[in-house]
Amino acid sequence: MDLLLPSYVSLSKYAHLVAFIFAAICFEKCILLFLPNCRHPVLASQSFHTFAALILALALTFFGVAVAKRSPTVKVVDVFIDNLPPELDGFSIVQLTDIHIGPTVGKQRIEKIVTLTNSLNPHAITIVGDLVDGFTEHIGHQVLPLSRLKSRFGVFYVTGNHEYYHGDVNEWIDLFRKRANLTVLRNEARVLTSGHRSLCIAGVDDLYTEKLSIGGHKMDAVKALNGCPDGAVNILLVHQPNAATRIIARVKKHIDLILSGHTHGGQMYIFWPFAYLRNDYLHGLYSEKGVDCFSNLLEKLARISFIRLLLWNRQFQAVFSLIVSVCISLVCFMSADYIYVRTAELPISNLSPKAEGLRIAVLSDLHAGGAVHRDQIAHVVDRTNDMNADAVFIVGDMTDGTIEHLESRIEPLRHLRSRLGTFMVTGNHDYYFDDALAWIRLFKSYGIKVLTNSKADLEGICLVGLNDISSGTSGIPSHEMNISSVILECEASKSVIVLSHNPASAKHISESNLSYNGVDLIISGHTHSGQFYVMLPFIYFVLPYVHGLYTVPMKFVSHNTILLVTAGTLYQGPPMKMPFYSNIWQVTLMAKRTSEFVDLD
Q: Mind telling me which Gene3D superfamilies this protein's record contains (predicted)?
């Protein structure tokens, strides 16, 4: 049981981290959209945002733990009831709720609550559900301090949803009655007399019982309130505030005060929006049908019940989900074949004079096969040729099938035109179907220079092409990605550009001892930028680089490397693309001056 507290703390840290990382992603996308040229480290640095998210997650988690371990505070609320008899004026009730005795709330905590409650000297004490989180044989002894609760008229208890989660709820009810001296109200009432006037406390089974089939357990407010005499001041105990909404609508008998819990006020602020939308009442004192009360602005906002009616109504959810799904699917389908040309001018060290201003078209992830047909490949070729680039780079994942079925679809690639030719490397999908070497031979027959762990001279630039990071599992002898041996063949005085399908290879390159041979630019694809927005968070956490331009620090040389990750020129699987369009990059190489520092992070 003691081990569960660190587990909950770890879960809290993770929830905070996910929330802050998501906020950072949204912030970065807004910066990219509205301030595309911003390079301020606080605004544009993913590393800084990740570090800040981690620090905030840790700090707020431990602050929350510290606050939770403090003794409970007493909140005094005056409830004004119309026509309240003078004999009941000043009648005091202590409300306890959601104590959750169990893994993180032990006997010592309960004893503090009992001592604090008794010091208030109330007329009555109410416990409004979710008292325990566990089985009677494990934590039954932790409940026993409640037997020392003292008030003039007793201690009244109703079940919450958590009492039904562990074992037989009747075992807990017997223990509460016999050993904790609680008056358990199960769709029943107790009449308290003060002077010649009556106050009736009624209680109902939790709303959760309407979903269960446990004999004798079902919320019945009519039955409970029938036990209250006419003219009495009626107080109803019901664990969930959503049950209060139903009861008010169904019951004809007047209710002066309803006491509920369940929401924890959201408990942790990152869950507050969900608690706000899921419950008709969130926290505090509310007025319904003329009962006077005080409430702050936040509490008034939480009473906008039509929001819950819309967002949590099953019929509305089904219709809304269907409409949104159809609309998003149509948008994704219509935008799948739209190809956006992105441009970038990249500073390169030791760039030869004849390579100054060299324009390169970058393609990736065509995935011929499935939903990608010949006319789409031909369209990509036409768009690329219209750019009139000096060279064309293709960074893998060209095919999703066998040569027998796809040769006619991929054939338009033979018509790619550029002054210096087309250079290509393999991607992981190029190894999934048929013989990858057969595909390589076919591409070479089209005049494409396929770089398989090899290099080529491009206007004085050492252009290195690496086999895909997964090629070592292809079964082709000596075909695994080989970083050092190829790059070390480049002359130290030359600029080095590396084509490698998977951007994860950038980490391997940055940590390789390349002696004096640094890498100036790495060009990758593979991620599709998530392709479909629901996949983007997973891609973001799985891969270190997702889309766009990054600065990658080199471990053994003094300068950094620029990494370009494309969003893919077409798509894999269903013809859907959102939020990033398919793209072709047009990269212009510029000489980097010695005093120039570029931070693309």
A: 3.60.21.10
